[in-house]
Amino acid sequence: MDAFYIILTASLFAISCGLLGCFLVLRKMAMVGDAISHAVLPGIVIAFLLTGTRDSFEMIIGAALIGIFSTFLIEFFHNKAGLQTDAAIGVTFTWLFALGVILISVFAGQVDLDQECVLYGEIAYVPIDLWIGDDGTIFGPRALYVAAMTLIVNIAFIRIGFKQLHLTTFDPAFAATIGISVSLWNYLLMGAVSMTTVAAFDSVGAILVVALLVGPAAIAYLLTDRFQTMMMITVFVAIISSTLGYYLAVLVDGSIAGAIVTIIGILFGITFLFSPSNGVLMKKRLQRKEAQRLKAEAPLS
Amino acid sequence: METLREFFSFSDPSIIAVTVGAVLLSASSAVVGTFTFLKKKALVGDAVAHSVLPGICLAFILTGTKNPLWLIIGAFITGWISLVIIDNVTLKTKIKEDTAIALILSVFFGIGILLLTNIQHSGNAAQTGLDSFLFGKAAALVGKDLIVFGMVAVILLATVALFFKELKLIAFDPNYAKALGVPVKAMDLLLTSLTVLAVVTGIQAVGVVLMAAMLITPAAAARFWTNDVRVMTFLAAIMSGFSGLSGAFVSYAAPAMPTGPWIVMIISAIALTSFFIAPTRGIISRSIQQRKLQRMIMDENLLKELYHLGEKDEDPYKARSLDEIIEERFFPKDRLKSALRRLKREGYLAKQNGDWKYTEAGKLKGQRVVKLHRLWELYLSKYMKIDPDHVHEDAETIEHIITPELEKRLEKMLEYPEMDPHEERIPY
């Protein structure tokens, strides 16, 4: 049962991250997602200090605000100070992350957060941390509910805003002419990324969230040219890697989150080489065949 | 104050190790970071910082010791491989660089975490302290580390000094560098190796995540103060060295404070301040310049419209009311009023019974703008063969920019024409 809970929780988070990741990958904003996942740390610490608990509604809101704030900062430095985007990202997220680590040290006695958890989380504790009602009924692992809620919110967000997200991703100029605010939808998407990051933080940590955001989407991107198909494949990859990852972790006795990401890496490697449409080896084979055909057809010389 | 004196007396040998180590690491990674920054590959440092983890763990698993040399070699290898993969993925698939970087750094890090937790669970007593690579241990630097760091710093600085010209060339214009006979590929390789080396050592002081800041932030800050690469490199090194020193001091004064994050906080504070207050490139100075430009354009447009009004009833010095001006061309009322007051102060306009009229200088200036506008329209239609219907917009912008020298050349080239393409008189 524990294994099932862990795999289910991981899959739900992976699907949430993957769906948002599809947009990030196509918008060339993967590193902004990376930045957000680090930058929310001070938000988490401050919300923790204010509310005294780790999984509260306030924390999610606080983190979403910090995530949007860091997106804003990145764009502000880029537009107003003429700083190149990569440097703007690098400066912003490291600064906020350092602030978070310092806050943790300052309030070390009051904040139940440690750096390991921040970086790679601990999904193995999911089945232990149960949600127990006031009358003592056990509803099951708390993280599972958080993961399910996150997924529902994300699916709702994507369904409602699909047209706008889709258009602002593929043709921002056209979106602007028909009256869709490109920057509003950008900030909404980044808000969703921040929320998801925070929700998944406990389980998978800051850096591995990035793998969940980018990995499945990148794999799917290599397998198809159609956006809807890409989202389907992403969901599929998310589930597969969560399941295989869990068993890999059991096998080598290591971090589950780390193992899930390792599987994502392996799957990406396979896709990179063998994807029928985009794989490197497949392309080579096609080229060879084409060369042979041309040779055969060429007049004798 | 007392603590400050105590700190700088360096009576405690451990303070020396921490301080010198922090300053060396900060300064040398800043120097290398300057070039990755200029190549617009700033986030590559972040990728390397995450990717060294599996190498460190593998080296430990294979050798069973924490000998820093083996760990550094292991780190170097995987850090390097990650960059090769990023390049290959970007080059050979439709995946863009940002996705490739994010993917590779998180996957390598994930593999590293898997290995690290595996080592930790294996109960090998020698493993304690491996996680200092994750979070850094600047406050726990000892004399032995210092020798390694010092050597690496010397290697980095000496290599950069030796190949300064080549590195500069490939950062700005690889094609030009190639034409000059600079071995671009080899130099790229050298820069990559330097980055990996800087990361591998620096990571022990500030940890995986913050290493990116040590490379990027000083360069970003220094860029705002100068256009000269040499000066920029020095500035970055000095700023970074200073924050290394301050970070060491903070963790001396308050031992509970982590050194690495404080170094990053201080260099970030320097950078953020630079973004705002630096002359010419800073946000404040930019916005001042922008406002000045906007005012100038507003003033010139206003004087131009007054000239147009004067042309219509052939009385350039007639006083005009606000409504009359707005009817000729729409300006927001408050901005119009402040522009009118400003022009009066500068002696271009005079006020008469609440209406506004040209002074001599004002008419000349308005006339010049009109002249430039029409000259440019004529130039576009005559020399660039652009249809007269399409030349107005362009002239509307250029009329504020043309310098007196350009004005003379235009007049000469067009031979002081009488009329513009819309049959309007060009005033001289």
Description:
Chain B: GO terms for molecular function: DNA-binding transcription factor activity; protein dimerization activity; transition metal ion binding. Chain B: Belongs to the ABC-3 integral membrane protein family. Chain B: Residues 359-427 form the Iron dependent repressor metal binding and dimerisation domain. The complex is a heterodimer of chains A (301) and B (428). Chain A has 301 residues and is mainly alpha-helical. Chain A has one domain (2-297): ABC transporter involved in vitamin B12 uptake, BtuC (Orthogonal Bundle), CATH 1.10.3470. Chain A is built from twelve helices and two strands. Chain A has helices at residues 2-26, 30-51, 57-80, 85-106, 115-120, 142-160, 162-170, 172-177, 182-223, 227-252, 256-274, 280-297, and strands at residues 130-132, 138-141. In chain A, strand 1 and strand 2 form a beta hairpin. Chain B is mostly helical and 428 residues long. Chain B is 75% helix and 2% strand. Chain B has helices at 2-9, 13-38, 42-63, 68-92, 97-121, 132-135, 143-162, 164-172, 174-179, 184-206, 208-223, 229-253, 259-277, 283-312, 322-328, 333-345, 360-383, 392-398, 404-413; strands at 349-352, 355-358. Chain B has a two-stranded antiparallel ribbon with strand order 1-2. In chain B, helix 2 packs antiparallel against helix 12 (229-253) and helix 3 (42-63) crosses helix 10 (184-206). Chain B is elongated, with a radius of gyration of 31 Å. The chains are: A mainly alpha (301), B mainly alpha (428). At the A-B interface, helix 2, helix 4, helix 5, helix 9 and helix 10 of A face helix 3, helix 5, helix 11, helix 13 and helix 14 of B.
